[in-house]
């Protein structure tokens, strides 16, 4: 069996049960698993030398991996800055500037979380020996990434399942921020508003009768949109949404398995 055939078979096995979008394999919906965790997991699953092209929100980065190691960055879309000192350079313990620079580039790519897809193909460069690069676990340790994150809580799952109905969200556990998601700019506005109007939002959560409840605060963010607050026991989600989506958001809450 040639390497190309073997690679296709391995890819087919590893993608079993996963979803596809326009023929591209979806490895994260932007929340689960976390974007950087998904990227390093793909590296950890890559045995033969492959170029892994990750795409999200119009941005793209291409990494070469093999032997369950990340070998380097070979391509990035024009919106990503600071690639000149990293692109084409081998990732290793002896090149900390490359490792840190790559982390910065990936941070730009992941700044606005969304659905991420990956395409795996033969690498043009950096095929190299099997021990080249750094393992996914080494990078995870250096970048402080959990390769085995805790599963989504019910409220996180609800925020994720709202999809395009919400533009940003914050999930609280015992009134402390636990997880966030959505458009970066809208999320910044939402977090600032939560800080400024914490007593209002906290009172709204407390006023929801019982352990489970849902309320909409129209135009709470001004031009940035409206806010919905959902409660499930010690968890609460504060969701930013466009006013015209209110009825659909109520419907999503009604169908939520909480």
Question: Strand order, biggest sheet?
Answer: 1-2-6-3-4-5-7
The portion of residues assigned to helices is 25-40%
Mean pLDDT: 83
User: What fraction strand?
Assistant: 25-35%
Low-confidence stretches: 4-17
- Evaluate the radius of gyration: 21 Å
Shape: elongated
Let me know the largest β-sheet. Answer: 7 strands, antiparallel
Q: Count of DSSP helices?
A: 8
Distance from first to last alpha carbon: 49 Å
Quaternary state of this entry equals single chain
Q: What's the total number of strands?
A: 12
Q: What class, by secondary structure content?
A: alpha+beta
Total count of domains: 2
Strand/helix succession: HEEHEEEHEEHHEEHHEEEH
Task: Map the helices and strands.
Elements: H1 3-14, E1 20-21, E2 24-28, H2 35-45, E3 50-56, E4 59-66, E5 69-76, H3 96-109, E6 116-121, E7 134-135, H4 136-143, H5 154-161, E8 168-173, E9 176-182, H6 184-196, H7 198-207, E10 212-217, E11 226-232, E12 235-241, H8 246-255
Antiparallel strand pairs: 1-2, 2-6, 3-4, 3-6, 4-5, 5-7, 8-9, 8-12, 10-11, 11-12
Give an overview of the whole structure.
The protein contains eight helices and twelve strands. α2 (35-45) packs antiparallel against α4 (136-143). It is 33% helix and 28% strand. The chain is elongated and about 60 Å long. By secondary structure, the chain is an alpha+beta fold. The protein has helices at 3-14, 35-45, 96-109, 136-143, 154-161, 184-196, 198-207, 246-255, and strands at residues 20-21, 24-28, 50-56, 59-66, 69-76, 116-121, 134-135, 168-173, 176-182, 212-217, 226-232, 235-241. The longest helix has 14 residues, at 96-109.
